[in-house]
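Priority: medium. Attachment 1 of 2:
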């Protein structure tokens, strides 16, 4: 295995995995209200009232951004060009910032302090997003320094 492939695998696989956790975590691992083990029998939360809880829409937004991060992580493994990998790392950072902002500022979670989305989903998404931002930033800095040194073309 070439050294470049090891580096791409070392960065791409965690990005891919974190993207999948952000995408499917609010649905299965750390579910929001009305999902997974917190689902209400008989049609879910939407059948109980005319409105859907805000955490449902946050989980849908996280699904989209998480899948984008997973695709970017997969491309990080496949692409050999350092400049393109640098752009992928920057795109991962921007999407991870969006993943961080959805449960905290942009959409939010339910207001009740004992709701599953506030106790489990929100903290998990915050931790995964921050780790992803840090990891992608470190990866981008390493790639940028290698490009500046002329070690890679």
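Attachment 2 of 2:
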């Amino acid at each position: 295995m070439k050294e470049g492939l090891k580096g791409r695998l070392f960065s791409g696989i965690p990005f891919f995995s974190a993207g999948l956790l952000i995408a499917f975590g609010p649905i299965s691992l750390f579910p929001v209200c009305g999902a997974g083990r917190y689902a209400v029998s008989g049609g879910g939360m939407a059948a109980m009232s005319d409105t859907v809880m805000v955490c449902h829409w946050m989980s849908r937004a996280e699904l989209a951004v998480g899948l984008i991060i997973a695709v970017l992580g997969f491309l990080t493994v496949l692409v050999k060009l350092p400049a393109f990998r640098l752009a992928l790392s920057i795109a991962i950072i921007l999407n991870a910032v969006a993943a961080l902002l959805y449960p905290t500022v942009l959409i939010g979670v339910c207001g009740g302090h004992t709701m599953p989305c506030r106790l489990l989903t929100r903290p998990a998404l915050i931790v995964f997003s921050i780790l992803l931002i840090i990891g992608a930033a470190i990866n981008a800095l390493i790639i940028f320094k290698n490009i500046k040194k002329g070690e890679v073309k």
